[in-house]
Design brief:
Length: 562
């Protein structure tokens, strides 16, 4: 078989007699690049380009291309790409720009377009401020000064990007909102960094949270909003109307379950700002990278909440718990939904019911055993709903009585002045561990220098590094734990224990609902012999409160006796 030959098709060049200068005016402005918004404004660029065209009769005006608020570090700009296609078609053979920074701020990419791509299509380049015209001097675009200028523009963009990132982080840390307002909020007209409640949309947000906490899933919530004719966040922003109206073209998708889930997880609704949830690698690569929550910048109490923090946390508990869906004909969760777990395999227990002699019996059993058999979990862990509720009722009421008594004792302890000098010196302990941590870092550096100088082998250095890193991690955990203990004791001293107030406000529990149970309980593990283990949500806080009472009550007794 004969080998095929491939040829690169060269663009046609018009003869000098028929040649006309078909001009494209290209304008660009970007706040991200640190452009001077006054001198570099689109209107100023247009005025300069128009005057230049009027002064030169050879130009036949074609079109203008504007990329407003597009960074020069990326050439995938809509108008730039549209202009490039017109050049490839032969409809444009000259580009006029104010200066080279308007063309681009990426040294490598700008050079590629100016020196390779555009000359291939015999496209003339005119940069007014830089006094460059490739028709008058074909080498002007490849000169050393042009490359230096492109490099300077590239470097300026890099420095500006770093400054903008720093400024944005500073604003976020100050609790200022620099993102678009979420559904249910608008930006304060007097302070663009502050959110205020949009009363009309906030009603829908409250409705979403109420429906979810009552046991309705995200799919059914989305369907309900669509049935009511409530528009989505984007459509509401465009039309300024919460309900669909005639004369507007609306998206066919409407509300979707993922949009409902995003609202339910958005900390903004509890009065907090959760920002910097994503970033980019650098000023040239704009691909979004999602960050872990530990890397977010979260500031509490920055604006008025639509949902109380308690309700918001309950929602997160429900979202993170499996098997909490209601049946289609039921709008509320069952009391034990999402709470019972198999003590052996960790799988949720699912609800079943049967009728014997006209009486309804409700029981739970291991989902893994029920669906996959005894090979995956060797017992059903079946238990009656009424048995669990009876034990829970006794346990929770006893817990509430204990908490009420603890609160009374703590208030009495905190009234005494002696309590101020009985505290553990957390600051001293934390400082000691921080010094040890810094010493480890210094020792690790010494080990590195010893390895480089040949005093120790690489194997010895790596072994020592591993040991240093283990000890450093252990110290970090201890420091974090001490800081948490210090904060807890400070809260107790200031009578600031919101978790306790939330629980005792329930009073005596006559009927257990799912909402009440998940306020107290993290999970309930069910064993083969039907024994259950209740893991309480606030067990650590309860233990610390009990220890606080025990320690200080004893010291007060000793001090009083002395």
């Amino acid at each position: 078989m004969a080998r095929k030959k491939f040829y690169i098709e060269k663009p046609e060049v018009e003869s000098s007699e028929n040649y006309q200068v078909k001009v494209a005016k290209y304008m660009r402005l970007s706040r991200m690049d640190g452009d001077n918004l006054e001198s570099d404004s689109i209107s100023n660029q247009r005025r300069l380009l128009n005057n230049y065209i009027l002064e030169n009769d050879e130009f036949l005006y074609s079109d203008e291309f504007i990329d407003d608020d597009w960074t020069g570090t990326n050439f995938q700009r809509p108008s730039f790409q549209r202009m490039l296609k017109e050049i490839q078609k032969g409809n444009i053979n000259c580009i006029i720009i104010k200066d080279l920074s308007r063309f681009g701020r990426n040294y490598i990419e700008a050079g590629k377009y100016l020196e390779e791509i555009l000359p291939k299509y015999n496209c003339r380049i005119v940069s007014i401020i830089d006094d460059i015209d490739t028709e008058k001097d074909k080498n002007s675009i490849t000169g050393l000064m042009v490359r230096i200028k492109n490099l300077i523009h590239d470097n300026n963009s890099r420095e500006t990007s770093i400054k903008v990132r720093h400024i944005h982080d500073m604003l976020r840390l100050q609790g200022k909102n620099i993102s678009p307002a979420p559904f249910g909020y608008i930006k304060d007209p007097s302070d663009k960094y502050k959110l205020i409640i949009d009363e009309e949309a906030a009603i829908v947000v409250q409705m979403i949270f109420d429906m979810y906490i009552s046991g309705i899933g995200t799919i059914r919530i989305a369907n309900k909003l669509n049935e009511l004719g409530i528009v989505t966040r984007i459509e509401y922003r465009k039309t300024k109307s919460l309900y669909k109206q005639e004369g507007f073209c609306y998206s066919q998708n409407g509300w979707r379950p993922d949009a409902i889930s995003a609202i339910l997880s958005n900390k903004t609704y509890k009065g907090s700002l959760d920002q910097k949830r994503s970033t980019t690698r650098n000023y040239k690569d704009r691909e979004k990278i999602c960050l872990q929550e530990k890397d977010h910048i979260i500031v509490d109490n920055t604006h008025e909440p639509i949902i109380t923090p308690d309700v918001f946390e309950k929602i997160q508990t429900i979202k993170n718990t499996r098997c909490v869906k209601t049946s289609r004909n039921r709008i509320k969760l069952y009391p034990l939904s999402g709470v019972l777990k198999c003590a052996d395999c960790g799988s949720p227990l699912i609800r079943n019911q049967t009728t014997k002699r006209g009486k309804l019996y409700v029981y739970y059993k291991c989902r893994t055993y029920n669906q996959q058999g005894c090979k995956f979990c060797n017992h059903s862990h079946s238990i009656k709903e009424e048995s669990v509720l009876a034990i829970l009722s006794i346990t929770l009421n006893s817990q509430i009585r204990t908490l009420i008594n603890l609160k009374k004792i703590v208030l009495e302890i905190n009234k005494t002045k002696q309590i101020q000098r009985m505290s553990i010196d957390y600051d001293r302990l934390i400082r000691q561990k921080q010094i040890r941590k810094e010493t480890l870092k210094s020792t690790k550096l010494d080990a590195y220098m010893d390895w480089k100088s040949g005093d120790i082998t690489k194997e010895d250095y790596l072994y020592m590094c591993k040991k240093f890193n283990t000890n450093e991690s252990k110290l970090e955990i201890e420091i974090t734990s001490l800081q948490a203990e210090k904060q807890i004791e400070q809260d107790i001293r200031n009578n600031d224990f919101l978790w306790l107030e939330t629980l005792i406000n329930h009073g005596t529990l006559n009927k257990l609902t799912n909402e009440i149970i998940i306020s107290f309980v993290e999970k309930i593990e069910v064993k083969k012999d039907k024994d259950i283990k209740i893991i309480f949500k606030y067990q650590n806080q309860f233990d610390r409160l009990a220890n606080y009472v025990q320690n200080h009550a004893y010291k007060l007794t000793v001090a009083g006796g002395a």
